[in-house]
Design goal:
The chain is mainly α. The protein has one domain (14-125). It has helices spanning 2-46, 52-80, 84-98, 104-121, 127-130. The protein is elongated, with a radius of gyration of 19 Å.
Length: 138
């Protein structure tokens, strides 16, 4: 009887850890995308009138946010079980292709939606999340 109760408790904790990790990823990826969109729109609006040094600062911030989208997605895909080498190749290719013409308008939304779906369907706890689980729940 005690083992059954322990099993239910460990399943509940695992479910809550998975929700915590998923919600953390959703907040992180959406914050990065909103920041990227905001900087991009602001940069497009002031590019002609602003001083050159300020435009370059915004461009550096924009690139950092752009690559953060792919880095965050890559890290989450490793938790979801994607092969490390395949993930590096895939997300590097997507990041490079996104800079071609206006492909970022297609690649970024599709990547975010697909990663949110994979994140929702994920049943694997990350290494950081495993520290929250008790030793009996393995």
């Amino acid at each position: 009887m005690e083992n059954k109760t322990n099993n239910k408790a460990s399943d509940f904790i695992k479910t809550e850890v998975l929700k915590l990790e998923r919600n953390s990823f959703v907040f992180r990826i959406l914050a990065i995308v909103v920041g990227y969109i905001g900087i991009t729109l602001w940069l497009n609006a002031i590019r002609a009138a602003a001083s050159l040094w300020f435009v370059w600062v915004l461009i550096v911030i924009q690139f950092a946010l752009y690559f953060s989208i792919f880095i965050s997605s890559y890290q989450r895909s490793k938790v979801c079980g994607l092969n490390k080498n395949l993930g590096i190749i895939l997300f590097t290719a997507l990041a490079v292709l996104g800079r071609v013409n206006d492909w970022e308008l297609l690649i970024i939304p599709l990547l975010v939606v697909i990663m949110l779906i994979f994140s929702t369907r994920n049943k694997i706890v990350s290494d950081k999340g495993k520290s929250l689980l008790s030793e009996n729940s393995n």
